[in-house]
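Duplicate of #3305? Posting structure anyway:
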């Protein structure tokens, strides 16, 4: 479904550009990292892909203190690290060969104590210490060379396929080996720093459960929606291996978790999407910075990506894509729809019109498997595009497209001022509180009971206790 929508035209970038970090507010640094031109380019690419750096003095202080403890306990206390918190709701972390580490605020929000965060940081440090990050770069370059050579070999498809398959298998098995080794090294570093070594297995479990909550959402290559498990696959064997490593250092009851200080540091952290990039609330999409909103049908699930807003109807028989495209001011929207960016346009269907006071045009198109209805609206100096796809053209699919487009309008000043990000709020469990009652206090999240349990590291049967400190999501 997503492929059908993305394949029917050029890719428009919907979000506003990501801000660069302010020189006055540097990333968390344990020691000075000497950047290379390549690492600087990669750093800027990461910032632009993940919404820029997230500035939070409390978190920066916590991470700096944690990294200092881990570095002192590592086998290379002279190795320099620089940690950047990324302004992304994705659950992810990664490292560059230079010692530049990255962790998203989404991962920080998911962790329940400092020992869990330390397990991620020590894991990424392990990739640097074991030179995994550098080796991965070499492997990627080698794979590129193999691909070029294979492409030049020409006429033997069996040899071509075999060469490519061997390259991919080598990369996959090496990645698995890397992850187990980094887990083992990381658990050891965390344990020697006197953190609970079982933080790694607990957090791997939480990430796996968090990924399960995302299951069924529209697949996307948007890095902001990818999580730690995309590049650090978690398997039952990996969790068991982390537990086995932890047993070498302590019992489950020993080691510092530092839960209270951690919860105090993450209280009020932004959760999920940053409203400056546009955000989804239920079936509605709002973009306060650009000043518009629209509402999808009740049967659609919306997902905001870096390139577009994608909506999929329950069952997958219908979908929609909303994005921004460049159209010259002097070109009519009808001419744009007939300009060749989309194949199999029914030219007699092209119609210039006005929607909620905005100049617009619509057209129909088709492929062998899908029927498309496309709208283009001019809003200020931008042109926005709605692309609706249905396996079969029906009265419902036509109505869904028409009503969604007709809902596109300007946000009022009050709506813009009221558009606030979701945040993590740490509260104390009171007598009479239950998982269910506390989850009902959360706003802006799907499956609130499951989300509450995952956010607080609670399995399906554990109940909250009076005076426990727990996380909820509020606006």
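Output from current build:
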């Amino acid at each position: 479904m997503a492929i059908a929508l993305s394949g029917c035209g050029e890719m428009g970038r919907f979000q506003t550009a990501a801000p660069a970090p302010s020189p006055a507010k540097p990333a968390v640094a344990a020691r000075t990292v000497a950047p290379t031109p390549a690492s600087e380019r990669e750093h800027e690419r990461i910032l632009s892909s993940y919404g820029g750096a997230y500035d939070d003095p409390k978190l920066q202080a916590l991470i700096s203190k944690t990294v200092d403890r881990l570095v002192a306990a590592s086998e290379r206390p002279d190795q320099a690290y620089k940690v950047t918190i990324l302004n992304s709701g994705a659950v992810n972390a990664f490292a560059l060969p230079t010692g530049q580490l990255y962790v998203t605020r989404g991962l920080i929000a998911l962790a329940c104590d400092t020992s869990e965060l330390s397990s991620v940081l020590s894991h990424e440090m392990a990739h640097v210490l074991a030179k995994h990050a550098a080796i991965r770069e070499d492997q990627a370059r080698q794979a590129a060379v193999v691909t070029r050579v294979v492409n030049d070999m020409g006429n033997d498809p069996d040899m071509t396929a075999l060469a490519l398959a061997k390259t991919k298998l080598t990369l996959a098995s090496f990645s698995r080996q890397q992850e187990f080794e980094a887990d083992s090294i990381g658990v050891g570093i965390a344990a020697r720093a006197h953190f609970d070594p079982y933080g790694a297995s607990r957090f791997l479990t939480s990430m796996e459960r968090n990924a399960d909550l995302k299951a069924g959402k529209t697949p996307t290559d948007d890095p902001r929606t990818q999580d730690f498990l995309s590049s650090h696959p978690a398997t039952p064997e990996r969790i068991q291996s982390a537990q086995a490593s932890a047993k070498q250092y302590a019992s489950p009851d020993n080691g510092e978790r530092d839960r209270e200080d951690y919860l105090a540091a993450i209280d009020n952290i932004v959760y999920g999407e940053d409203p400056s990039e546009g955000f989804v609330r239920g079936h509605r999409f709002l973009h306060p910075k650009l000043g518009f909103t629209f509402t999808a049908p009740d049967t659609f699930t919306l997902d905001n990506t870096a390139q577009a807003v994608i909506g999929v109807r329950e069952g997958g028989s219908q979908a929609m894509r909303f994005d921004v495209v460049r159209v010259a001011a002097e070109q009519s929207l009808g001419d744009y729809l007939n300009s060749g960016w989309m194949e199999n346009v029914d030219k007699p269907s092209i119609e210039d019109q006005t929607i909620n006071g905005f100049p617009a045009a619509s057209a129909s198109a088709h492929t062998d498997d899908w029927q498309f209805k496309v709208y283009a609206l001019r809003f200020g100096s931008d042109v926005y595009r709605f692309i609706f796809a249905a396996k079969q053209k029906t009265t419902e699919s036509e109505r869904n497209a028409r009503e969604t487009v007709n809902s596109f309008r300007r946000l009022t000043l009050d709506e813009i001022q009221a558009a606030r990000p979701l945040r993590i709020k740490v509260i104390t469990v009171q007598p009479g509180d239950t998982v269910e009652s506390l989850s009902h206090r959360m706003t802006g999240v799907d499956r609130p009971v499951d989300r509450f349990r995952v956010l607080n590291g609670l399995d399906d049967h554990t109940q909250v206790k009076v005076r426990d400190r727990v996380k909820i999501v509020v606006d």
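Confirmed duplicate; merging threads. Residues 6-26, 143-147, 163-174, 216-226 have pLDDT under 50 and may be disordered. Residues 74 and 189 are 5 Å apart (CA to CA).
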